[in-house]
Amino acid sequence: MFALTRLARCSAIRRRSLAEISTYLQPQRCRSQASSTKARLNELDGPRLGQPTSVSHPHLIQPHELVPGLTLDEFQQRRSKLMHKIQSYASTFGDNYNGRSTKNHMVIVGAASKKYMSGKIPFVFRQNSDFYYLTGCLEPDSILVMTIDQGAKVESMLFMRPKDAHAELWDGPRTGPELSVPLFGVTEAHDLGQFETILGKLVSGLQPHFWFDMKSCDLQHVREGVIKTSSTENIQLLPVHTFLEGLRLLKSPAEMELMRRTCSIAAQSINEVMAETRPGQSEHHLFASVDYKCRQRNASYLAYPPVVAAGRNATIIHYVDNSQLLRPQDLVLMDAGCEYAGYTSDITRTWPASGNFTAPQRTLYDMVSVLQSDIIQLIGRMGGETLDQLFQSTCYRLGKYLQEIGLVPKEADDYKTLVSQGYRFCPHHVSHYLGMDVHDTPNVPRSRALEPGMVFTVEPGIYIGQECTDVPPEFRGIGIRIEDDLLINKDSAVEVLTAECIKERRSLEQLCQQAEAATDSA
Ligand SMILES: [Mn+2]
């Protein structure tokens, strides 16, 4: 479907903005005739909105999509689902909060604001995940206000930065309120400056239950406006994160596709980094390399500062200095993932810098590898129905396996002791939910039963510090983690989204030795 048809369908579209948009989208309709490179470049030269569209970025966004991989419909459904969910939840106890009963609800979610390194030097802007999830809008400082009334009618309103020739000269185009209505499919849009006035009127008219998470809102003026309005109207603020995270936890088919994509980008990139690793390179070199390879595949950036840890640095779980050189006998542990179209991947691989594991490294690698595949097998079965159960099972099995190779005393044979021995050598959880954020939906308990649509990591590890004098010396200073991203898909099957990323020991050795061979013959 052409973008114009989609835009024309928006109920709230006004005549003037439709005219403006059709001028704007003109190149879209001509695209099939524009075969030469020059003509295609001219297309991108037209007026721009505050974010990429299928017109300005046809290499990233399909004609029927608002942002890569997602249609306008999907965003409208998310808003509608959230509001209906809140209303039906409230109705289970008579629509009553704090002694006040109404079927009207209002939710406010703010965008992220720009953050600065120093003076006027900005950090790379990253949109607030909840705001992006509900709007697809990538502009800073914007505000989304949604309402549902007693007739179950959902309306949404965006407050956007006004058009401003001077500001746009410096920071690039803004969409502005007028074009935001058809672009994001909201009922209304206004200048940011009108937020307090319009909010005040809306609240005094509807007297809704008022849902707003003070802590997760970056924007000071929004927090102040909300406090002022709620106290004027004597309305208490209710937390919206349970409902929002509940939705974000279960990925739609389009989100599953985006998760497959972001995982595949990181998996292929890490494979290449492993193949190119050689002793003498620095951890920083591998960091730059994985960043480069992910961006080459259209990732926006790495999803978090990666851990690239050689040798004993790998026993520091959040090692991010990445400043040491790789020695021939070192293992390299890389924990890296990327963000593609707002969705993140999170992979860890551990491989030998020289292409060959030493005997103690091999023993521990094989153990973590078997442990990880045990845990993946367990998903959805007894002992693996929740992330917490997977964690408990990981600690117990790790304790048991360590006992088999002689790192845990033979006498320790009760369940509790083995669990605590496992936890001693792997002192982090084996899993977290994954999605738009790396540690996604953090308020959803890990004791929740796994179900289709959930994406999470499985990441057992072993870290033996130099100070572990009760462990044979050859094992000290070794850190290993293997981490994959998994999806329970719509058929309830467990899909390893990062399966492309090589981890089987012999294949890993082969991959790393190829690099050696290539260097030797060069
Ligand atoms: Mn992780």
Walkthrough of the structure:
With 522 residues, the protein is an alpha+beta fold. The chain has 2 domains: 72-247, 3-Layer(aba) Sandwich (Creatine Amidinohydrolase, Chain A, domain 1); 250-521, Creatinase/methionine aminopeptidase superfamily (Creatine Amidinohydrolase). Helix content is 40%, strand content 15%. The strands form 7 sheets. A 6-stranded mixed β-sheet has the order 8-7-6-3-9-10, sandwiched between helices. The protein has a 3-stranded antiparallel β-sheet with strand order 11-14-15. The protein is globular, with a radius of gyration of 26 Å. Belongs to the peptidase M24B family. Its cofactor is Mn(2+).
Main sheet overview: 6 strands, mixed
The CATH class of the largest domain: Alpha Beta
Number of strands: 21
Which percent range fits the helix content? 40-55%
Protein name: Blast:Probable Xaa-Pro aminopeptidase 3
Family: Belongs to the peptidase M24B family.
Keywords: Aminopeptidase, Hydrolase, Manganese, Metal-binding, Protease
Domain Aminopeptidase P N-terminal: 70-220
